[in-house]
């Protein structure tokens, strides 16, 4: 992992994350679907999102969240190699939702209880000290604010009280302009950000969001 994506004590993004909220990392297209249906829903697929095995939170029919506040900083940063990549899991931006604990309707299973409960199940274990599981879906009214993080540089992020599609599109345009000004040896970064795949995914997400809205009417 390059230096621009490393988290350490005093890092501005880490200071923002260590503020008492719980956090859920998602992509722009998935966020549009969350906003359309009104809930963050558990991943009920048979396999894990990033691997073959289901995760501990999937086994609990829950949503995977990060808690960067409860445990001492030394423990949290001690497992940074396991969780920091999720802050940039979507390109060119990851959207990190900050959630208020008191507004959640379901039960939150912290670490190491989520590890102990799922230890005998065929699933991957939770990330030590930081991963917690919310059993059931989470209503979007629990979102306190949003962090939009540049996937290639964790020093570059923006905070929003309200995040809409126009904000996301503006961030994509803004970051593309920044990448264009970089030296030619960083063209691989530019290629990732200008890929038509992102536009296709965003269009698919918009269509899915519209479908969900029509079904809810």
Description:
The chain is of the alpha+beta class. The chain contains 9 helices and 11 strands. The strands form 3 sheets. Strands 6-8-4-1-5-10-11 form a 7-stranded antiparallel beta sheet. It has a two-stranded antiparallel sheet with strand order 2-9. The longest helix has 21 residues, at 196-216. The chain is globular. Mean pLDDT is 86; it is low at 185-194.
- Give the strand order of the largest sheet, numbering strands 1, 2, ... along the chain: 6-8-4-1-5-10-11
Strand element count: 11
Q: Runs with pLDDT <50, length 5+?
A: 185-194
Mean pLDDT: 86
Query: What's the shape?
Result: globular
Q: What is the string of SSEs from the N terminus onward?
A: HEHEEHEHHEEHEEEEEHHH
Largest sheet: 7 strands, antiparallel
| Span between termini | 45 Å
| Share of residues in helices | 25-40%
Strand proportion: 15-25%
Radius of gyration: 17 Å
Decide which structural class fits the backbone: alpha+beta
Supply the number of helical segments.
Answer: 9
Question: What's the arrangement of secondary structure elements?
Answer:
Layout: H1 12-17, E1 22-26, H2 28-37, E2 39-40, E3 54-55, H3 56-59, E4 62-67, H4 73-78, H5 80-83, E5 93-99, E6 108-109, H6 113-118, E7 123-124, E8 131-135, E9 138-139, E10 143-150, E11 157-160, H7 165-180, H8 187-194, H9 196-216
Parallel strand pairs: 3-7
Antiparallel strand pairs: 1-4, 1-5, 2-9, 4-8, 5-10, 6-8, 10-11
Write a concise keyword list for the protein shown above.
single chain, 217 residues, alpha+beta, seven-stranded antiparallel β-sheet, two-stranded antiparallel ribbon, 9 helices
């Amino acid at each position: 992992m390059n230096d621009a994506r490393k988290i350490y004590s005093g890092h501005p993004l880490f200071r923002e994350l260590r503020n008492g909220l719980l956090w859920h990392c998602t992509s722009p297209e998935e966020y549009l679907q969350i906003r359309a249906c009104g809930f963050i829903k558990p991943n009920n697929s048979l396999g894990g999102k990033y691997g073959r095995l289901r995760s501990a939170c999937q086994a609990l029919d829950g949503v995977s969240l990060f808690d960067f506040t409860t445990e001492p900083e030394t423990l949290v940063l001690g497992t940074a190699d396991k969780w920091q990549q999720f802050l940039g899991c979507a390109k060119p931006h990851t959207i990190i939702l900050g959630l208020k604990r008191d507004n959640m309707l379901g039960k939150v299973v912290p670490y190491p209880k989520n590890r102990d409960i799922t230890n005998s199940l065929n699933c991957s274990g939770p990330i030590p000290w930081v991963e917690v599981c919310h059993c059931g879906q989470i209503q979007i009214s629990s979102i306190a604010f949003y962090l939009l993080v540049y996937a290639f540089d964790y020093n570059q992020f923006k905070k929003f009280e309200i995040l809409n599609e126009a904000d996301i599109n503006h961030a994509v345009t803004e970051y593309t302009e920044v990448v264009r000004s970089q030296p030619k040896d960083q063209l691989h970064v530019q290629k990732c950000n200008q890929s038509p795949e992102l536009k296709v995914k965003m269009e698919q997400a918009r269509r899915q969001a519209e479908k969900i809205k029509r079904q809810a009417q």
